[in-house]
Design brief:
The protein is mostly helical. β5 (312-313) and β6 (321-322) form a beta hairpin. The chain has helices at 2-21, 56-81, 87-96, 98-114, 120-137, 142-147, 154-168, 174-183, 189-202, 224-227, 253-303, 334-354, 367-370, and strands at 24-26, 33-35, 37-39, 46-48, 312-313, 321-322. It has three domains: 2-37 and 47-155 and 248-262, no CATH class; 156-233, no CATH class; 279-370, no CATH class. The protein has 13 helices and six strands. It has a two-stranded antiparallel ribbon. It is 58% helix and 4% strand.
Length: 371
């Protein structure tokens, strides 16, 4: 169920990424097809059609279509792997875990490939999980260093929240500061303007009426009524942050790096799961071999009890012997009884260990196999 649920998330992410660009995904056939809307030359209205091959949008569609086909191929392989098995196949898979491992490998391939189609917002949403997986499975891998080239979009979010709080408190926002900077005079012109103002005031021939020239607005104040906005009306989306982090769009450089890192992390996880699965197989095989040895000892001890004498003297100087079954001579039930008591003690020990069983972060449990 976990694999199928994650497959649904993959296909949903692909549909959303295609719709963000303005395209649609036709899934009526075996292979989904991307359909774009080209602008009409005469009416200027959008109409379904193909974009010319020389257009950059056409090349983007072709590249995106190839990625979509690859993703849905992995999705199809995963669903085929998870089809109901026959009774004998289910028993064998419960021992080996081959079907589950194949399903996760195809699922991981679909998840890492779909990153190429994500929009900037979608990529920003899953970047924390990609960084977490890279930290867990690629601690000393060059791909983890490549992931550091993608900017962290969470820091501007905190800055935006701080700006909104400052705006609500009545402080000047960076947008107003930037606007005032655009309205400020160029270097050199400001000093000349100040000198001109000083000469104007000191010249007795100029009018000193404070209302003189009231039809003209002072320098830098002609947009004052427009610049002074209510701080409560300034939202985060309206605030222009200097150096704001913007991730690339579909098939962009950030998507390429993130997909490569996620693919490497998934491969590292799959390799780890394969090692655990192989080790579990070795444990099961060793348990079967030991069980065969124990059964063989029981059969031999039951047929020839003298081969395994388990009797001991009743006292240090008394010649009478005592055996596990209570007799004074070896009997066919001595060896099976001892082995059965040992198996019972081992079973109780395993049951005690299973009470403290915790998830180990792997798809295959080793605690039961070790027991």
């Amino acid at each position: 169920m976990d694999v199928l649920d994650r497959l649904c998330h993959v296909t949903e992410d692909v549909r959303r990424a295609i719709s963000v660009v303005g395209w649609t995904l036709d899934e009526s056939g075996d292979i989904p097809q991307i359909q774009a809307h080209a602008q009409g030359t005469a009416s200027g209205q959008d109409s379904p059609g193909a974009i010319p091959d020389g257009n950059a949008s056409a090349r983007l569609i072709h590249e995106a279509q190839a990625v979509v086909q690859t993703i849905y191929k992995y999705v199809w392989n995963t669903k085929e792997t998870l089809k109901p098995l026959k009774r004998r196949q289910r028993f064998w898979d419960s021992l080996t875990g081959e079907v589950l491992m194949s399903a996760y490998i195809n699922l991981h391939a679909a998840e890492s490939t779909r990153v190429l189609l994500l929009s900037s917002d979608q990529l920003a949403a899953i970047l924390p999980s990609i960084r977490q997986r890279a930290t867990a499975y690629l601690p000393a891998d060059p791909n983890f260093d490549a992931l550091k080239t993608i900017p962290d979009p969470t820091q501007p979010t905190h800055q935006a929240v701080a700006m909104r709080v400052q705006a609500q408190a009545g402080q000047v926002t960076p947008q107003i500061k930037a606007h005032d900077h655009r309205n400020s005079p160029a270097p050199g012109h400001d000093q000349a303007h100040k000198d001109g103002d000083a000469n104007t005031v000191s010249d007795p021939s100029q009018p000193t009426d404070p209302n003189a020239g009231q039809g003209e607005q002072p320098h830098g104040s002609h947009n004052a009524g427009q610049d002074q906005k209510d701080p409560a009306d300034i939202t985060v989306g309206q605030t222009t942050r200097p150096g704001a982090i913007v991730l690339t769009g579909m098939l962009g450089s950030d998507q390429e790096v993130a997909a490569q890192v996620m693919n490497a992390a998934n491969r590292a996880e799959d390799a780890q799961q394969l090692q655990v699965r192989h080790f579990r197989g070795v444990l099961y095989l060793a348990a079967v071999v030991l069980l065969v040895v124990v059964v063989a000892l029981s059969i031999v001890g039951a047929i020839q009890a003298a081969y395994f004498p388990l009797c001991w003297p009743l006292s240090g100087s008394h010649p009478t012997m005592i055996c596990p079954t209570g007799g004074s001579a070896p009997s066919p039930g001595d060896v099976p009884l001892v082995l059965a008591m040992g198996a019972l003690g081992a079973a109780l020990s395993v049951a005690l260990n299973l009470t403290a069983l915790k998830p180990a972060g792997v798809h295959f449990s080793l605690t039961i196999a070790q027991g």
